[in-house]
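Quick one:
INPUT:
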């Protein structure tokens, strides 16, 4: 039978190994939480973070099981080692609890409710449009930014508007603009009309670059007119998440100058030159 000093030495080695593993896992948890804090909290990322958390919890459970499997003879007493084991077990539990608390704080503060300085009725509409393969991304985007989006008068094509009403339910504070038809049936063209009649301030348009579209001409028209009228155009999720930071600041702080297309008619700088050329054409035809 191994001597008591040998068993003490072995136990000390095992505990040291477990402490090293605990340090590595704690570092991994810290990096994971930092990544969650830096992320825009979209749906796909949340799923990935959840999977990471499950793996970390399994690793911590492994520490606990390893500590429980360390055995002693009934006549041996190692108060120092037992204290270390108890400390390691508590640390494993605390790390999980701390991670959950940090994630909970992130969920509470990312899209916190706030009072807007501008009621939706005083601003032009915000349109939301998504091609078929981009609709899941659009729903995740809406869910991640509900408390901001509800401060705008929302318009869009039929399927997206249906999704918005499902997400917001019976919330009486949400105002809707016109519901346009499906894109291939003229919905994009209808949004162009809303824009040209000075009722559209911005557009979140998640476009699918990997598929052919029967209404390509309408898509190009919507993109072109957004440039002509110089409205805020968000053509992919990365741009949309970045721009919404500015929208949030503008509404919270009452800074209309940050989002002028929601309050006044703008145009591309190139329009002025176009008007000069057109005036010459008109004058020439008069002569």
């Amino acid at each position: 039978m191994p001597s008591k000093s040998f068993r003490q030495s072995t136990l000390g080695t095992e505990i040291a190994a477990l402490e090293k593993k605990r340090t590595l896992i704690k570092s991994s948890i810290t990096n994971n939480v930092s990544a969650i804090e830096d992320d825009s909290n979209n749906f796909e990322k949340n799923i990935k973070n959840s999977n990471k958390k499950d793996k970390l919890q399994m690793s911590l459970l492994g520490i606990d099981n390893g500590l429980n499997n360390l055995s002693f003879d009934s006549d041996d007493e190692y108060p120092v080692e037992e204290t270390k084991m108890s400390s390691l077990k508590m640390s494993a539990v605390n790390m999980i609890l701390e991670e959950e608390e940090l994630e909970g704080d992130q969920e509470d503060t990312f899209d916190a409710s706030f009072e807007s300085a501008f009621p939706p009725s005083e601003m032009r509409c915000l349109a939301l449009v998504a091609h078929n393969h981009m609709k899941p991304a659009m729903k995740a985007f809406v869910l991640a930014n509900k408390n901001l989006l509800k401060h705008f008068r929302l318009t869009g094509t039929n399927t997206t508007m249906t999704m918005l009403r499902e997400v917001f339910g019976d919330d009486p504070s949400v105002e809707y603009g016109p519901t346009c038809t499906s894109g291939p049936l003229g919905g994009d063209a209808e949004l162009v009309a809303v824009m040209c009649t000075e009722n559209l301030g911005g557009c979140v348009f998640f476009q699918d670059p990997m598929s052919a579209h029967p209404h390509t001409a309408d898509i190009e028209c919507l993109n072109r007119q957004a440039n002509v009228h110089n409205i805020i155009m968000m053509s992919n999720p990365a741009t949309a998440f970045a721009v919404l930071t500015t929208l949030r600041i503008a509404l919270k702080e009452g800074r209309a100058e940050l989002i002028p297309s929601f309050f006044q008619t703008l145009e591309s700088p190139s329009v002025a030159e176009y008007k000069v050329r057109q005036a010459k054409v008109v004058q020439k035809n008069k002569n």
